[in-house]
Amino acid sequence: MAKNTICLWYEKDAEAAAHFYAETFPDSSVGAVIRAPGDYPSGQQGDVLVVEFTVLGVACIGLNGGSAFKHNEAFSFQVATEDQEETDRYWNAIVGNGGRESECGWCKDKWDISWQITPRVLTDAMAAGGDEAKRAFNAMMTMKKIDVAAIEAARRG
Questions:
Q1: What is the model's pLDDT at position 147?
Q2: What backbone phi and psi angles, to 5 degrees, belong to 122?
Q3: How confident is the model at residue 3 (pLDDT cuts 50, 70, 90)?
Q4: What is the pLDDT of residues 25-69, one digit of tens each?
Q5: How far apart are CA 150 and CA 141, in angstroms?
Q6: Among candidates 94, 146, 95, which has minimal Cα distance to 125?
Q7: In terms of Cα–Cα distance, which of 100, 26, 92, 17 is closest to 56?
Q8: Going from the N-terminus, what domains does the chain have, and what CATH number goes with each?
Q9: DSSP for residue 111
Q10: What angle do CA 131, 136, 137 make, to 5 degrees?
Q11: CB 112 within 8 A of CB 73
């Protein structure tokens, strides 16, 4: 286990989530699956309690802790994409697997984890500042999934 690991709380599906992430994103995998050594408030001895996994090279653990806590947008995975094809692939995988769209490149997976699928053209435009950033920002504000061609057109004015 990595020294610094992100712990994500799941009601009961940490293992399914970890497998989905490993199948969807490169440099992602599922490691140890740890079963509860005894009964606990939201489960029984032998249930999957913790799953070690990696998402895009980031060490994570999923904890099946029950329904006491819910995810929100205060935590999200931000995925930088190179083009529309990669943007579409990740967005469609998340939304098409029981997730839902949000605004400005954000979506949630079926476990309520937030994702920002962000083409580099958008972050490059924002970093450029000035009118270019403002035009790209205004274009982004009208989108759910980011449209790379529309951002490129906005950058050009």
A1: 98
A2: -70, -50
A3: confident
A4: 999 999 999 999 999 998 999 999 999 999 999 999 999 999 999
A5: 12
A6: 146
A7: 26
A8: 6-64 (3.10.180.10), 76-156 (3.10.180.10)
A9: T
A10: 95
A11: no
Assigned token pair, 19: 């497998």
Terminus-to-terminus CA distance in the chain, angstroms? 48
* Cα–Cα distance, 17 to 23 (Å, whole number): 10
Q: Does the structure show a pLDDT above 80 at 2?
A: no
Chain mean pLDDT for the chain: 96
Structure tokens at 114: 């937030």
Residue 119 has pLDDT above 90, yes or no: yes
Q: How many CB atoms lie within 10 A of CB 107?
A: 23
The token pair that represents 58 in the structure block: 């980031």
CA 121, CA 58: separation in Å to the nearest integer? 23
How far is the C-alpha of 113 from the C-alpha of 131, rounded, in Å?
A: 33
Task: Answer whether residue 11 shows pLDDT above 80.
Answer: yes
